[in-house]
Specification:
The protein is an alpha/beta fold. The chain is built from 30 helices and 33 strands. Strand 24 and strand 25 form a beta hairpin.
Amino acid sequence: MKIADIDKTAIIYQGREISFPWLHAWIKAFSDLIPVGHGDRVAIFSENRPEWICAVYAAWQRGAAVVPIDALSSPTDIVHVFNDSMPKAIFTSKVLEKVLLDAVSSGARPGHIFVFEDLSSLVVHGGRFSSALSDDDAALIPYTSGTTGRPKGVVLTQRNLLSNIEGIISTGIASRDDRLLSILPFHHTYPIMTTVLTPLFLGATIVMVDKPSSDEIITACRTYKVTIFVGVPRVFELFYRSIMGRVRKNPILFMFFMLSRSLDRLAISRFIFRRLRVRLGGALRYLVSGGARLSPQIARDFAALGLPVVEGYGLTETSPIISFNLPRVIKIGSVGRPLPGVEVKIEGGEIAVRGPNVMKGYLNLPDRTRDAIRDGWFYTGDLGALDQDGYLYITGRKKDMIVLSNGKNINPEEIEGMVLATAACVKEAAVMEKNGRLFCLVRPDLEALKAANISNINEFIKWKVIDEYNRSVPDYKKISGFDVVSSEFPKTRLGKIKRHLLGSVVTAAKRSERRSKGPSDEVFTALSAYLKEVSGKEVFLEDHLEMDLGLDSLGKIELLSFIEKTFGMSVTEDELSHLLLVKDLYVYIKQDAVRVERGEVGWRDVLGADGVVDIDIYEGDLSILTLKAVLSLTARPYFRFKVSGADVLPARPFILAPNHQSLLDGFLIIAALPSYALRDSYFIATEEYFRSPLRRAIAPRMHVIPFDLNRNLASALKKAAVLLRRGKSIVIFPEGARTRDGGLLPFKKAFAILSKEIGVPVVPVAIDGAFRAFPLGSLIPRPYEIHLKFLPPVFPNGMDYDEIVGIVKRSIEGAMKKGVVL
């Protein structure tokens, strides 16, 4: 092990440049200080700082092994590491000294404790670093990140580390002229190898950043002319979102981005986005990603921006690097070729590695060592494949694979990547097995949703994320259920999900641990009491109205009515879409509340009286009757369209509640309704189908009332109530979306609310065959037989909303089972 003996800058930290001669001198001073000898161990429990690096080399100069400890470790974790590794000395910082002392009081035995801040007055006389370790001596004993259980100490020898350094250098990927950005915690072997040991061996410069935010990274790259940015997928995802957010906001820039992506030529991409590279200092040659799998799409997009990503692979047990792509021959999606001297084979789908980089073994765990290393080969536990050019591809983690009840093996990381690629507003996704099916936890990007004016998060995730994903995969890979969560998933410091802890993500205990109950003033007391009543949950200031308290679109409308009655102020749906945290809503109400007087909330009040809502409806019937005539002439022969049950239609007004099989359904109802009923019938339809100028102009003539679930659902319901009171009938699809498999989706209760509060009957309508005639994703309907039947009306007398919903749904289900037309 060595450090270059040259007179140039070794480390840049907090604006201070530290030279190689200074580094050598401070290592000598630290080495003289610690009372350890050959074969002893020295622990380091600290955040990243230059002294951390000095402590490592000081221990090696005394012949001792280094035990790096995560700066976020709890006292319990520290006790385990100390009692397992038995260090004779430990370096820490003032910030973490109390945590360390708590660990000592709990049974940790650290030996001598040195606090970095207390060593600033050391007398430094110069010197030169020289390792006292032999090749087979333990040099580093990092503890595995523990994604599935208690961490294990991994014994890496000086030879292990040197083989990795020399393998990296032999590829020519870096030189002493490079400046490497260092943002990852040093206690992991990946950052210590790539951003400490290799640069100092070469004589390159380390640029250390305290906070890995996009702004800090950009500033450091620009200020210090960084040439290589080493990170993990989690960091690059944040960096990517920051850059692409700006690109997407500029139509011309986005057009150039799409051109660059299609051309796929690095020189052209760098020319097109030269201003971006200048903003990053103009020297950044490439990004280096490791520690976990990076989305291939993000890698492609970075390349289109002129920033190629060099992705590699390795484990703590392999010092850590096994393979990586070279900048000149990158295969996106692969983790490159093995380092010189490293052999890789695939046995039973599992990646096995042999070479000088493979660890000596697990500390104090001979049985675990024998299980992992067999006949000189280390079995990684990762699944992968090698292509004909020797490039390695990771396909999953053996212990993370999900085996479904049908025997199918599922790689959760693959599915998570596809879900994340479906929508930019998803921050994290985690797939697990639940009741023999795939289940997904989704953590959305609330700021992105707010910017897009999306307030009904569950509906958005259901249809625009999970459903979009499901439509692109075979049945056995489909996600059968999901939860939207607000808490960050438990992960290692390098961004790997701790899957054994996922079950605790949405528990009430976790929720209450991180939240505050809020003030005791009368505004919050009234608001929280109402929210507790409707959600059945304890209410905290940081709660999200939908994700934590479960308020759906109708629940939010009731909340708006409560606010008006209790606080004497009006909040619109659009305003509420930006006040989705309890604390934000509380502050908003607190500012403008006229009174605090709890009022009873009922849907009759929400719907208002006739005349309260300004409604301008098109009373003409020529257009819709003409369309009916055309449809009658075409639909009946093309689809062998059969209609029955029209004789059960009651006197107007009534609510038609059809199941939703396809985009044909509205037209089928127009064709099926008798002309006398059609003249006074209006369709409540989602706005997304009527956004073009032409469709917006046609909608009123076709008796369509469009609504946006995120902005004006209350207004649409009030308009529907006015229509019913004026003797008009309305058509509402209770499912709110088309079927994905021919079966019924859950029914929403809006139609039942209107029925009960206005006192009008609901006519269930069963449609069968439309799904096969015009399935989701098809462009042209095919001639498949379609049946439509009007079923006996359901009168709301004496029933609650759920009872009405249940009867209507069962009526349609029964007709579908019998073939609809009897």
